[in-house]
Amino acid sequence: TDNGTTNNGSTGNNGTTDGTTNPSSGECTERTFNATATQVQGGADNGGVIIFNGQQEANGMADILIVESWGQLGGPQAAGTYRIDSTKNYKDCALCVLMAAGCDQQSCSKYFYATAGTVTINQYSVEAGQTASVTVSDLEMIEVTIAQDYTSTAVAGGENICIASAELTGE
Questions:
Q1: Which of 72, 78, 81, 117 is the most buried if burial means most Cβ atoms within 10 Å?
Q2: pTM here?
Q3: For 98-156, how does the pLDDT look when each residue is reduced to its tens digit (9 = 90+)?
Q4: Pick from 49, 44, 68: nearest CA to 127
Q5: DSSP state of 148
Q6: Which DSSP symbol is given to 94?
Q7: Residue 137, CB half-sphere, CA atoms under 13 Å: how many?
Protein backbone atom coordinates (compact mmCIF):
# COMPACT_ATOMS: atom_id res chain seq x y z
CA THR A 1 0.00 0.00 0.00
CA ASP A 2 1.10 3.60 -0.40
CA ASN A 3 0.20 6.70 1.56
CA GLY A 4 -2.40 8.13 -0.88
CA THR A 5 -5.54 9.05 1.01
CA THR A 6 -7.56 11.32 -1.22
CA ASN A 7 -11.34 10.89 -1.13
CA ASN A 8 -11.52 11.84 -4.78
CA GLY A 9 -15.29 11.71 -5.12
CA SER A 10 -14.90 10.22 -8.57
CA THR A 11 -17.91 8.01 -8.10
CA GLY A 12 -21.24 8.21 -6.48
CA ASN A 13 -23.91 7.58 -3.89
CA ASN A 14 -27.63 7.24 -3.61
CA GLY A 15 -28.40 10.59 -2.04
CA THR A 16 -31.66 12.34 -1.36
CA THR A 17 -32.15 16.04 -0.82
CA ASP A 18 -31.56 15.57 2.90
CA GLY A 19 -28.23 13.84 2.22
CA THR A 20 -29.29 10.32 3.18
CA THR A 21 -29.46 7.23 1.01
CA ASN A 22 -32.75 6.12 -0.43
CA PRO A 23 -32.38 3.06 -2.67
CA SER A 24 -34.34 3.03 -5.91
CA SER A 25 -36.84 0.34 -6.80
CA GLY A 26 -35.51 -3.20 -6.50
CA GLU A 27 -34.91 -4.00 -10.18
CA CYS A 28 -31.23 -4.25 -11.07
CA THR A 29 -29.01 -5.35 -13.92
CA GLU A 30 -26.57 -8.06 -12.85
CA ARG A 31 -22.94 -7.24 -13.69
CA THR A 32 -19.84 -9.37 -13.42
CA PHE A 33 -16.68 -7.68 -12.24
CA ASN A 34 -13.29 -9.35 -12.77
CA ALA A 35 -10.47 -6.95 -12.01
CA THR A 36 -7.69 -6.91 -14.61
CA ALA A 37 -5.66 -4.45 -12.52
CA THR A 38 -5.81 -3.51 -8.83
CA GLN A 39 -4.29 -0.90 -6.56
CA VAL A 40 -4.45 -0.45 -2.80
CA GLN A 41 -3.68 2.87 -1.11
CA GLY A 42 -3.54 3.49 2.59
CA GLY A 43 -1.90 5.28 5.42
CA ALA A 44 -1.78 4.60 9.16
CA ASP A 45 -0.82 8.24 9.66
CA ASN A 46 -4.13 9.34 8.10
CA GLY A 47 -6.57 7.70 10.49
CA GLY A 48 -6.34 4.24 8.99
CA VAL A 49 -7.67 5.12 5.55
CA ILE A 50 -7.53 2.30 2.99
CA ILE A 51 -8.77 2.50 -0.59
CA PHE A 52 -9.04 -0.49 -2.93
CA ASN A 53 -9.33 0.17 -6.69
CA GLY A 54 -10.05 -2.54 -9.23
CA GLN A 55 -10.23 -1.97 -12.97
CA GLN A 56 -11.98 -4.14 -15.53
CA GLU A 57 -11.26 -3.32 -19.19
CA ALA A 58 -13.22 -4.15 -22.34
CA ASN A 59 -13.23 -2.58 -25.81
CA GLY A 60 -10.97 0.32 -24.83
CA MET A 61 -13.23 1.32 -21.92
CA ALA A 62 -12.94 0.53 -18.20
CA ASP A 63 -15.16 0.06 -15.19
CA ILE A 64 -13.52 0.92 -11.88
CA LEU A 65 -14.73 -0.59 -8.59
CA ILE A 66 -13.64 1.35 -5.50
CA VAL A 67 -13.91 0.29 -1.85
CA GLU A 68 -13.00 3.00 0.67
CA SER A 69 -12.68 2.59 4.44
CA TRP A 70 -12.28 5.89 6.26
CA GLY A 71 -10.97 4.91 9.71
CA GLN A 72 -11.31 8.42 11.16
CA LEU A 73 -15.05 8.29 10.30
CA GLY A 74 -15.53 4.85 11.89
CA GLY A 75 -14.71 2.69 8.87
CA PRO A 76 -13.35 -0.82 9.44
CA GLN A 77 -9.69 -1.10 10.39
CA ALA A 78 -9.43 -4.87 10.72
CA ALA A 79 -10.21 -8.05 8.83
CA GLY A 80 -13.88 -9.02 9.05
CA THR A 81 -17.24 -8.79 7.29
CA TYR A 82 -19.14 -5.50 7.32
CA ARG A 83 -22.58 -4.49 6.02
CA ILE A 84 -22.93 -1.39 3.89
CA ASP A 85 -24.78 1.41 5.70
CA SER A 86 -27.48 2.53 3.27
CA THR A 87 -28.29 5.61 5.35
CA LYS A 88 -25.06 7.37 4.42
CA ASN A 89 -24.31 9.77 1.60
CA TYR A 90 -20.94 9.48 -0.18
CA LYS A 91 -19.93 12.73 1.50
CA ASP A 92 -20.05 11.12 4.97
CA CYS A 93 -19.77 7.36 4.51
CA ALA A 94 -17.21 5.47 6.58
CA LEU A 95 -17.30 2.36 4.36
CA CYS A 96 -18.05 3.28 0.75
CA VAL A 97 -18.38 1.14 -2.37
CA LEU A 98 -18.49 2.94 -5.70
CA MET A 99 -18.25 2.10 -9.38
CA ALA A 100 -17.26 4.37 -12.24
CA ALA A 101 -18.54 2.84 -15.49
CA GLY A 102 -17.67 3.40 -19.13
CA CYS A 103 -14.42 5.22 -18.41
CA ASP A 104 -11.87 6.35 -20.99
CA GLN A 105 -8.74 8.44 -20.42
CA GLN A 106 -10.81 11.61 -19.86
CA SER A 107 -14.03 10.75 -18.03
CA CYS A 108 -16.59 8.12 -17.06
CA SER A 109 -20.13 7.87 -18.42
CA LYS A 110 -21.87 6.78 -15.18
CA TYR A 111 -21.25 6.49 -11.45
CA PHE A 112 -22.87 4.05 -9.01
CA TYR A 113 -23.01 3.93 -5.20
CA ALA A 114 -23.69 0.76 -3.16
CA THR A 115 -26.82 0.91 -1.02
CA ALA A 116 -26.73 -2.73 0.15
CA GLY A 117 -24.33 -5.65 0.36
CA THR A 118 -21.32 -6.72 2.37
CA VAL A 119 -17.63 -5.94 2.36
CA THR A 120 -15.27 -8.62 3.66
CA ILE A 121 -11.79 -7.40 4.44
CA ASN A 122 -9.75 -10.58 3.98
CA GLN A 123 -6.37 -8.98 4.76
CA TYR A 124 -6.01 -5.49 6.21
CA SER A 125 -2.81 -3.46 5.98
CA VAL A 126 -1.99 0.20 5.47
CA GLU A 127 1.77 -0.51 5.49
CA ALA A 128 3.84 -0.28 2.29
CA GLY A 129 4.73 -3.67 0.79
CA GLN A 130 2.08 -5.62 2.70
CA THR A 131 -0.89 -7.28 0.98
CA ALA A 132 -4.44 -6.05 1.53
CA SER A 133 -7.50 -7.83 0.14
CA VAL A 134 -11.23 -7.18 0.09
CA THR A 135 -14.26 -9.06 -1.28
CA VAL A 136 -17.62 -7.40 -1.96
CA SER A 137 -20.78 -9.51 -2.06
CA ASP A 138 -24.44 -9.05 -2.97
CA LEU A 139 -23.93 -5.40 -3.94
CA GLU A 140 -26.95 -3.32 -4.92
CA MET A 141 -25.85 -0.06 -6.53
CA ILE A 142 -27.74 2.94 -7.87
CA GLU A 143 -26.69 5.51 -10.44
CA VAL A 144 -25.65 8.82 -8.90
CA THR A 145 -23.96 12.13 -9.52
CA ILE A 146 -21.27 13.49 -7.20
CA ALA A 147 -20.97 17.20 -6.43
CA GLN A 148 -17.63 18.94 -5.84
CA ASP A 149 -18.21 18.68 -2.08
CA TYR A 150 -18.71 14.87 -2.53
CA THR A 151 -22.46 15.01 -1.91
CA SER A 152 -24.08 12.24 -3.90
CA THR A 153 -27.51 12.45 -5.49
CA ALA A 154 -29.51 9.61 -7.05
CA VAL A 155 -30.16 10.04 -10.78
CA ALA A 156 -33.92 10.18 -11.40
CA GLY A 157 -34.80 7.13 -13.50
CA GLY A 158 -31.15 6.03 -13.26
CA GLU A 159 -29.82 2.53 -13.70
CA ASN A 160 -29.54 0.05 -10.82
CA ILE A 161 -26.84 -2.62 -10.96
CA CYS A 162 -26.03 -5.67 -8.83
CA ILE A 163 -22.69 -7.42 -8.40
CA ALA A 164 -22.79 -10.89 -6.83
CA SER A 165 -19.11 -10.94 -5.85
CA ALA A 166 -15.79 -9.32 -6.68
CA GLU A 167 -12.34 -9.45 -5.06
CA LEU A 168 -9.65 -6.76 -5.04
CA THR A 169 -6.13 -7.56 -3.80
CA GLY A 170 -2.96 -5.49 -3.89
CA GLU A 171 -0.02 -4.07 -2.00
A1: 117
A2: 0.81
A3: 999 999 989 999 999 999 999 999 988 777 778 889 999 999 999 999 999 999 999 99
A4: 44
A5: T
A6: S
A7: 10
